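Lab meeting, item 3. Inverse folding demo.
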């Protein structure tokens, strides 16, 4: 079957070259007679996989030597709990920019004895424009932000400099798609299912001095325990780590994160230009806050949005339906999404607009 253009927000599209390598290796990895899914996580074959995955990620993100890279499970949602359990002592600060940051706040509030302050929020403008982050002083143990909001379509591409505490970032939807200085953060976490590979893996990048600050944490929720055991305190998501290694190799072959960001900007600009030049479509997001990877748009008429999605699917444009809290359509243009797919979508948008009379 011919592949479709998959605009899913996650699990998301993966590059065909990577999928072909996975297909080739599926029955016997490197002549072992075993699939990667069958390899012991204590085997030399898998140890090489996880070592290579970490080395490649360190190279791609220029991760300093005083940061640990962890390959964990539980999704980014488990990090909503692990972060405050490990780093929160008395008082923490959060920026509310949408659905995922709201969930992170709610989980932090469940940690006994921890005060959670929402120091900035875009709730009043329905999360369509990022708030200004005020000075964050050392009364807080950390500041938590969501760099990219998959549902609302907003992004922080630049991190404020007036923050005097460790910055914790949920980078699930734009890790490796935009360039960030890892040293600006105390901890970065990201679910894999958007730019890193299949679901089931969560990457955590943590500054060493932030680990081991609290005693008697459950072992599975303790960053230091996970780091001391090389991300193998229990059986790790071996297949997802293998796929992540292949994805990291693919990004490197394309020229690294800086080159990927150029490509992503080209894709996003093409779609935003089509929206802005249209009499039918509009973007709900303020121009200065617009994401490069998750782009919501709508016609303003629910029945037209539904018709657009039906006709789009008939032409192989899948998973364009917007999140129920936003409505309309949403195109997720992660690293693996091809430029030709954006060009094809723009052509279809123009065709649809012409057919409905531009109203």
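The presenter then showed the designed sequence:
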């Amino acid at each position: 079957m011919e592949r479709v253009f998959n605009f899913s927000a996650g699990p998301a599209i993966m590059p065909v070259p990577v999928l072909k390598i996975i297909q080739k290796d599926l029955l016997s990895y490197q002549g072992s007679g075993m699939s990667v899914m069958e390899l012991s996580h204590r085997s030399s074959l898998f140890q090489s996989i996880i070592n290579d995955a970490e080395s490649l990620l360190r190279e791609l993100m220029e991760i300093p030597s005083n940061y640990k890279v962890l390959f964990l499970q539980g999704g980014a949602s488990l990090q909503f709990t692990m972060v405050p359990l490990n780093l929160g002592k008395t008082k923490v600060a959060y920026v509310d920019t949408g659905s995922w940051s709201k969930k992170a706040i709610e989980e932090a509030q469940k940690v006994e004895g921890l005060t959670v302050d929402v120091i900035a929020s875009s709730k009043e403008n329905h999360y369509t424009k990022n708030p200004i982050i005020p000075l964050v002083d050392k009364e807080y143990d950390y500041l938590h932000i969501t760099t990219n909001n998959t549902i609302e379509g907003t992004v922080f591409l630049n991190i404020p400099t007036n923050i005097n505490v460790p910055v914790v970032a949920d980078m699930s939807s734009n890790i490796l798609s935009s360039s960030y200085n890892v040293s600006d953060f105390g901890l970065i976490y990201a679910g894999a299912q958007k730019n890193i590979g299949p679901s089931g893996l969560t990457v955590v990048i943590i500054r060493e001095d932030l680990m081991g600050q609290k005693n008697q944490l459950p072992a599975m929720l303790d960053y230091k325990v996970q780091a001391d055991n090389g991300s193998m305190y229990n059986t790790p998501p071996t297949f997802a780590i293998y796929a992540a290694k292949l994805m990291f190799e693919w990004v490197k072959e394309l020229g690294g994160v800086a080159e990927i960001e150029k490509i992503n900007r080209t894709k996003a600009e093409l779609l935003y230009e089509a929206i802005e030049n249209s009499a039918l479509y509009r973007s709900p997001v303020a121009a200065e806050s617009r994401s490069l990877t998750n782009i919501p748009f709508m016609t303003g008429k629910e029945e037209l949005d539904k018709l657009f999605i039906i006709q789009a699917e008939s032409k192989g444009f899948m998973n364009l339906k917007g999140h129920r809290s936003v409505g309309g359509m949403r195109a997720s243009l992660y690293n693996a999404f091809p430029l030709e797919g954006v060009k094809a979508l723009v052509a279809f948008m123009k065709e649809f607009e012409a057919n409905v009379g531009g109203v």
